Amino acid sequence: DTAVSQTPKYLVTQMGNDKSIKCEQNLGHDTMYWYKQDSKKFLKIMFSYNNKELIINETVPNRFSPKSPDKAHLNLHINSLELGDSAVYFCASSQDLRTANTEAFFGQGTRLTVV
Amino acid sequence: AQTVTQSQPEMSVQEAETVTLSCTYDTSESNYYLFWYKQPPSRQMILVIRQEAYKQQNATENRFSVNFQKAAKSFSLKISDSQLGDTAMYFCAFIAYNNNDMRFGAGTRLTVKP
Q1: Do A45 and B102 touch (CB under 8 A)?
Q2: Using CA atoms in the order B23, B24, B28, B34, what is the torsion angle rounded to 10 degrees?
Q3: Are the beta carbons of A1 and A26 closer than 8 angstroms?
Q4: Which of A33, A40, A108 sits opposite B43 (nearest CB)?
């Protein structure tokens, strides 16, 4: 069973389109994240949700909107896609950090290419 | 906000030898966790090792160990008996105890040569 699953794995789309990336975790974790990894492999946090509430919202264009319908899901919707949005997007989840041996579990990433 | 710095963009090591990857961080928090993650060409992020800041003993996982210097805010990763499968990007990460803001360094690309 995949702990954190993202769909799709690859996404190629034209500029100006609207697209969504879905993320689901079956670990019972309270916190979920979205990260963007650029072509230089730099991982930048975009959003963090805890129990469906937004707790971190980095300087991200408002074309990016996360949606958490429940604790196990955190989807990322992107409006009016631009060339610079091309990257790999990672979803991750973690348990309460005060729990022993906690770590962040990552999905396999979604490679978004905007043409 | 916390920052994590990895000053070695690329490193290489011969198979079976030892290599050390550097990481420093800046924070005003006293309780936090540090991690090393590995990202092979498959793109999957894999936890290598984890260190709680309140623990003085350095974490060890088989061939992987850390040198945690809290006062210096340094957290280096030592890989012993390097194997070809260790070839990957390695990311140092920090998360404070009282929030869920997990920050990563820029990464070090490690190549293990046969």
Answers
A1: yes
A2: 10
A3: yes
A4: A108
SS3 content of chain B, % helix, strand, coil (to 5): 5, 55, 45
Of B94, B52, B8, B75, which is closest to residue A43 (Cα–Cα)? B94
Sign of CA dihedral A22, A31, A3, A110: positive
Residue A49 vs residue B76, higher pLDDT = B76
The residues near A101 (Cβ < 8 Å, ≥ 6 apart) are B50
Give the CA angle between residues B5, B99, A86 to the nearest 5°.
55
Q: Is B100 close to A103, i.e. CB distance below 8 A?
A: no
Each residue's pLDDT, cut to its tens digit, for chain B (114 residues) gives 779 999 999 999 999 999 999 999 999 888 899 999 999 999 999 999 999 998 889 999 999 999 999 999 999 999 999 999 999 999 999 988 777 788 999 999 999 999
